[in-house]
Amino acid sequence: MRPIHRVAVLGAGTMGSRIAAHFANAGIPALLLDVPGQPKRNAPAQQGIQNALKQRPGGFFTDDKTTLVEPGNFEDDLAKLDGCDWIIEAVIENLETKRALWQKVDALRKPGAILSTNTSGIPLAKICQGFSADFRTHFLGTHFFNPPRYLHLMELIPGPETDAGILVDVERFADRRLGKGVVRTKDTPNFIANRIGSFLGGTVGKAMLEEDFSVEEVDALTGSLIGVPNSASFRLLDLVGLDVWGFVGTNLYELVPNDPWRDRFLPLDFQKKMIERKWLGDKTGQGFYKKTGKGDAREILVLDWKTLEYQPLKKPRFPSVEAARNIENLGERVHTLLHSDDRAGRFLWKVLSDYFVYCAQMIPEISDRMVEIDRAMRWGYGHKLGPFELWDAVGFLAVVSRLETQHRALPANIKEAVAQGITELYHPPDQQRGVTEYFDFRSKGYLPIEPRPGIFTLRDRKLSHGVVLENAGASLIDVGDGVLCVEFHSKLNTLGEDAIGMLQAGMEETDRNFDAMIIANEGETFSAGANLMLVLLMAQEGEWDDLNLAVQRFQQMNLALKYAAKPVVAAPFSRALGGGCEIVLHCTRAQASAETYIGLVEVAVGLIPAGGGCKELLARLKDPLRIFDLIGFAKVSTSAEDARKLGLLHRSDAISMNPERLIGDAKALALSLVPNYSHAAPASIAVQGESAYAMMKLGAWSARQGNFITDYEVIIAEKLAHILSGGRLSGAQTVTEQYLLDLEREAFLSLCGNPKTQERMQYMLKTGKALRN
């Protein structure tokens, strides 16, 4: 893989500045150029950097990453391109603007530099037409999805003459350093994801008009219910901007004159009026939704598309949705909805059946395989299942049969596949077939999905090799090469007796039969912490001995992780909160996803960490005031890099940019520790006693005077200070870990008995939000 030490991004708008920010996240210096400003020549580029930093969600892992982005302008700084190994153009979607800029770049670029455009709709052949052969061999498309830090997809588009070696190098770099899921696409209008995404959005709008649905009804049906992010349909358009969406769709309509479904790409009449009125979504303060008022008077209004007037948001209710909502398996849930004979079922069938048919018709025009289409929609739009995966999940033949019953035309490739007797589009792995196979429409047979070295999935491993041991909340999985994995699989991966028992069983099994252990899973979150419902029920029932025993067992399990006979690596990602954070703190090492939001948040429910979190931070940071602030304000990292700064990850812990590589990386890290591993000796921990307690108590008093915390939070803070000072000892000294664990458990149990803590726990369980009582 060719080295890439410095990149240049041309265009400091929302897209360009965030691309530069993400290279900075990966530790790659970036030159960010834009038009010259007046009177400050680099003002547009500087503003782009600030926007990427301040906008939410933020483009940088940490604030100091901004120092890796150098601002400049197209008139004064193009000569600096000779020091850049990769030049990415992300200016306005105008062919002549792009070509004119590339002509200037061509004269100044470093020999051998990679040249790519972030266009989403202009054919690459038109952009590079007339340029030298050397330019054309180095030129390709790299379509990042916005925001690049968070959206996994990068579409890689070969130009007419792109060198094959450059494509391989860019694909590997984007995968390993930038953390991208790379999909190679054809140079067709809007490539894969935006072609399919634009069709789906237009189909939802068409069905809304035909079935007389409101905006909020549509969003209730087209979000997490069917495996789509909560932004659903119209909230997504508010985020993207109606002007952007309208431009993309209209441009696509003009570029695909032979697409029989092309009318779906055009904005509806009422959407055109919204664009005329500048009701573009979040960036103009109103779109399909509008926020009014502040504080307790804050209200969300929703657009009535018939009158173009805003009205209070109503929570839609559909009988079929209420019946299906608790079906955990996505395929079963959507299958149930599609077979419901009510408004919701009919609406979803109309949308999803067209979606399935259109995606099949796009093979081979936009992709030769369904695999790339499914990946593009999962990685670019955040769908849990791509269209063909969802079709399989709800019943491939059942959908075909229903389409035929309705005298709907089936795509030719689907008709041929059915004629051959296939019953599903994908064959999942089993003990005879170790990999997933897909139906290939070209060869008219099943082919294995090629392995991607370093990318490991627990699902496939379980299907092909089974599990070592399992219960309702966790499993032990042999992931090969002498490594055992403990996988959580409860709701939100909360930690109850099942998970704690399986962790203990995992260490015992590792001692007997394995070289190392990892703690990893493929859920939506690493772990949301302790099972709060169980804690609340025991507290309300006064089962103090049982609660004390449960907390003590969790503490001892964490100590066992810390002093395990063989290395244990945690693989946190997304949220690792409360007890989930404490598990990570006690492992030999962590291999964290770059997007890891970790913290000890127990104060939010009126508690303090009791699984050794206070103890471990004292051992690591040795600064009780810093820890008091970290735990007392329930701070959560904004990234794995931020977690290092906070002290919640150690400098020796590793970070995976690509979430798909997290488990494979954790396994590799665990194996690397085996040859020289020896478990730590029990530690003594320094505490500062009464003087530190007084300082922390003063901090709590000051926070209360400033109205930053409540009276009850002062009580919680004093219990936390009691632990962090070592129990208000008379002076500085060292104490055992068990001494601090006893203090943690005592404080935890006493707070559980307080009605205000129980109110907080109840409120969190009911609303998912913190109560400040």
Strand content range? 5-15%
Strand order within the widest sheet? Answer: 3-2-1-4-5-6-7-8
Structure class: alpha/beta
**Residues in helices, as a percent range:** 40-55%
> The biggest beta sheet, please?
8 strands, mixed
Sum up the overall morphology in one term: globular
Terminal Cα separation, in Å?
A: 56 Å
Low-confidence runs: none
Rg result: 28 Å
Q: For the residues shown, what is the average pLDDT?
A: 96
Number of DSSP-assigned strands: 25
> How many helices?
31
Question: What do these coordinates show?
Answer:
This protein is α/β, with parallel strands linked by helices. It has 31 helices and 25 strands. The chain has an 8-stranded mixed beta sheet with strand order 3-2-1-4-5-6-7-8. A 7-stranded mixed beta sheet has the order 15-16-17-18-19-21-23, with helices on both faces. Strands 9-10-11 form a 3-stranded antiparallel beta sheet. A hairpin with a 4-residue loop joins strand 13 and strand 14. Helix 13 crosses helix 16. The longest helix is centred in the N-terminal third of the chain and has 19 residues. It is globular and about 80 Å long. The chain starts with 6 loop residues before the first strand and ends in a 6-residue tail after the last helix. 47% of the residues are buried.
